[in-house]
Each structure stands twice: as C-alpha cells, then as structure tokens.
Amino acid sequence: MIATPTVITPTDAGHPVRLGLRENRLQFSLLVVVNIAVGGLVGLERTTLPLIGSDTFGLTSDLAVFSFIIAFGLTKALTNLAAGALTARFRRKQLLVAGWLIGIPVPFALAWAPSWGWIVAANVLLGLNQGLTWSMTVNMKIDLVGPSRRGLATGLNEAAGYTAVGVTALLTGYLATNYGLRPVPELIGVVFVVAGLALTLVVRDTAAHVALELAHHTKPLPTGENTGLKAVFARTSWRDRSLRGASQAGLVNNLNDGLTWGVFPLLFTDHGLGLVAVGLIKGLYPILWGIGQIPTGHLADHIGRKPLIVTGMLVQSTGFILALALLDTPLLAGILSAVALGLGTAMVYPALIASVSDHAHPAWRANALGTYRFWRDIGYAAGALVAGILADALGLHATVIAGATLTAASGLLAARWITDHAGQPAALVRTPPAAMGDLQRLRP
C-alpha cells in the first residue's frame, strides 16, 4: 500500500498541521478518552432501564418499555443528520462542547425520574448528546489521520466508546444487585459528563486539517457539484449504490442493537438469570464490539471494507440463532450470543464508516457521514419499535427470529450493492506523480 505523504502547513494557531495518526497522537488520544466518556453515558441504560420500566414503573406493554429506545434512536439519528450540516456553520469543537452541555441533566433524570415520561425525556437529551459528541469525535479523528488510516481511526474511536458502554453495563448490573435499580447505578454518569466536558475544552479543533486534506486531495471536486445536505442525503441514501449499501447495513446493525437492548434483559430474566448475569451478557456484547474494532479497523485498511461488512452481518445473524437454540441453558446462550453479536458488529462498524468516507469527497464527507449515521442510528428506534410490536403480538422468541432474518438479508444486500474501489484503500490515497514534487517541498 502506498502511504500518504506527510504534509505540513503553518496554520492552526501557530501549530504545524500534519495529517497522520502518529503526527497527531496527542490530540487523537484526547479524543479517544472523550469518547470513552461518551460511551459510558449511554452504557448507563444497557442493563437496568428495561427492568426499571417493568419493575419500578409497572409497565406491562413491551412497546411501552422500549419507548425510551425509540426516543433515543430518533433523536440521535436526527442529530447525526443535523451535525453534518452544522459543521458548515460551527466548528467541530463547538458542537462537541454543546453536546456535553445538553447531556448534563441525563444521569440525574435517570436516577430520580418520578414517572416514565421523564425517562423518555431524558433519552431525548441523551440522543442529542450522543448525536453531537459521537459524531464530532468520529469526524475529528478522521480529519486528523487523513485518508490512509481511516479504518484504524474509526476502529479506535468506536472501540473506546463501545468498550465503555460494555464496562458501564457490567458495572451498573453489579451496582443494581447491591444497591437497587436506582439511583446509585445512574449517578456514575456524572463522572462521565464532567470528564467529557473537561477534556473537550482542552482538545483543539480540526478545521485546519480538513483544509489541508482538501488542498491536496487527489480527486478535485467537480465544478458545480452540489455539496449541500439535501443533495448529499439523496446521494448517500439511495443514488450511490455503495453508499446505499452501507446505509442499509448500518440501519440493520443498530436495529439489532436496539432489539437486544430491550429484549435480552427481559428474555434472560424470564429464564431465571439475575441482574449480574444479565449485566455480564449486556456488557460482554459491547466490550467485544469495542475492543474488536481495533484489529478489524486496521484489517479494513488492508483487505477492503466489503468482506468485513458482509461477513460481520452474517456472524451477527448467527448470534441471534444461538440465543434461542441454547436457551435451555440461558447463561451459556446469552454469553455465546453476545460473543457472536459483539464480534460481528466489530467487523461491520469501522468498515462501514470507512467505506462511507472512501466514497465521499472531503468537501461533503461530513454530510455523508451525518446521513449514514442518521440511517444507522434510526435503527435503534426501528429495532425497538419492531421488538415492541412483535413481542406484544408474538412473544420474545419470535422477535429474536425476526432479528436473525433481517440481519442475514441485510448482509446479502451489502454483498450486492457495496463496491470496494480497485486496490482499495491504497488507490484512494495514491498521489499523482505530478503532485509529488509539490508535496515533497511541503515536508519538514
């Protein structure tokens, strides 16, 4: 693979601007830690909140219990979409700070909400928080590293966030067993909010890095090409075959997550598991999802995005099958299902983000990523809605079967629609010979 030359320009408040992971390791590391806090905040809900709905507030409808996921998913999806457009008016750091300020009330509302409506409202705020903070950490890391390490950059970002989701799910399960479902498990979210906001104030914005990549991008933006949100939304959602394939796979991937988020705690407690065991299952899934993205993100930079996306979706489908096939031994069923779902998602997640970045010009990449993340995270709401309707009508088992079927179908669509560029990803970062002299003169 041909490496991207290091390019320097004397901007960004006196700091030399370079593209690359090693060149920006301090800022990149700070953003990794920020995303640990981002993931930790949403991890508060993974183990306990469906049980709070049914046990604390006495909800009898599964659809009503899953309404908090619907509120979260819809809000986060719309915020992701808006975040791409907002980057044209505000700096990424400003949006990151705004996301943390919006998230301040969330742990307090979860801990002391007097009614289920307050929980749903808190999830609207959480969706706004996650849409802004997670979107900006992804965009800023991609800005820093340049084209040649997008897979690794997104893998590290998502690994940090989802490992934090899993560890927090484990911790809240333990705390709920010892101190009750509320308020102790939820109040660890205060630590995440304070840490995330404090570190965000230290991180530098990445506008200069975007400008640098635009200046030396190997594929000029066609004259008159529309880079507005409406045009990019249409292009990412259905007009571009590969972007369409990535968007539908992202939607179904998070449909799985929304479905298991609501269904698995109820399914496994119905079969005799306690909160610690459920916390283990709900924690293991995102931990493997998170840690696994470091090698899979790196692998996506070497073998291409499509093989990981297709295989990962099929592995996730297998995870649902295992959950039912082994349900007579519920702990084993839960653990093996979590392993398959976690590893399958680890294969898919960084490859999808990198694939969208590959097919998007830097001038409209933020809007393309925002559109992709809109479809991906609306999957949370779709998963909770499908799960609630099916569970009320046909039961939890039928809901899990539906998850397996949809996931396998999505993998087959990804295989048909997504195209890796020839030689990808090396072809995407190859520098034309005529430009090499100019780039070499910009070296230190």
Helix and strand layout, with pairings?
Blueprint (H helix, E strand, L loop, with lengths): L7 E2 L7 E2 L6 H19 L5 H8 L5 H4 L1 H20 L5 H12 L2 H7 L3 H30 L4 H30 L4 H4 L1 H14 L4 H9 L13 H11 L1 H30 L4 H17 L1 H11 L2 H20 L4 H29 L6 H30 L1 H22 L15 H9 L3
Antiparallel strand pairs: 1-2
Helix pairs in contact: 1-7, 1-8, 1-10, 4-7, 4-18, 5-7, 5-10, 6-7, 7-8, 8-14, 8-15, 8-17, 12-13, 12-18, 13-14, 13-17, 13-18, 13-19, 14-17, 15-17, 16-17, 16-19, 18-19
What's the average pLDDT? 87
CATH domain class: Mainly Alpha
- Widest β-sheet, arrangement of strands: 1-2
Q: How many strands in all?
A: 2
The level of helicity is over 70%
Order of helices and strands: EEHHHHHHHHHHHHHHHHHHHH
Uncertain stretches = 1-10, 422-444
Integer-rounded radius of gyration: 21 Å
The CATH architecture assignment turns out to be: Up-down Bundle
Range of strand content = under 5%
- Could you name the CATH topology? Growth Hormone, Chain: A
How many angstroms separate the termini? 23 Å
Give a short synopsis of this structure.
By secondary structure, this protein is mainly α. The chain has helices at 25-43, 49-56, 62-65, 67-86, 92-103, 106-112, 116-145, 150-179, 184-187, 189-202, 207-215, 229-239, 241-270, 275-291, 293-303, 306-325, 330-358, 365-394, 396-417, 433-441; strands at 8-9, 17-18. 76% of the residues lie in helices and 1% in strands.
Question: What does this 3D model show about the protein?
Answer:
This protein has 444 residues and is mainly alpha-helical. The protein has a single domain (18-205, 228-425), classed as MFS general substrate transporter like domains (Growth Hormone, Chain: A), CATH 1.20.1250.20. Helices cover 76% and strands 1% of the residues. It has 20 helices and 2 strands. It has helices spanning 25-43, 49-56, 62-65, 67-86, 92-103, 106-112, 116-145, 150-179, 184-187, 189-202, 207-215, 229-239, 241-270, 275-291, 293-303, 306-325, 330-358, 365-394, 396-417, 433-441; strands at 8-9, 17-18. Strand 1 (8-9) and strand 2 (17-18) form a beta hairpin. The radius of gyration is 21 Å and the shape is globular. The model is unreliable at 1-10 and 422-444 (pLDDT under 50).
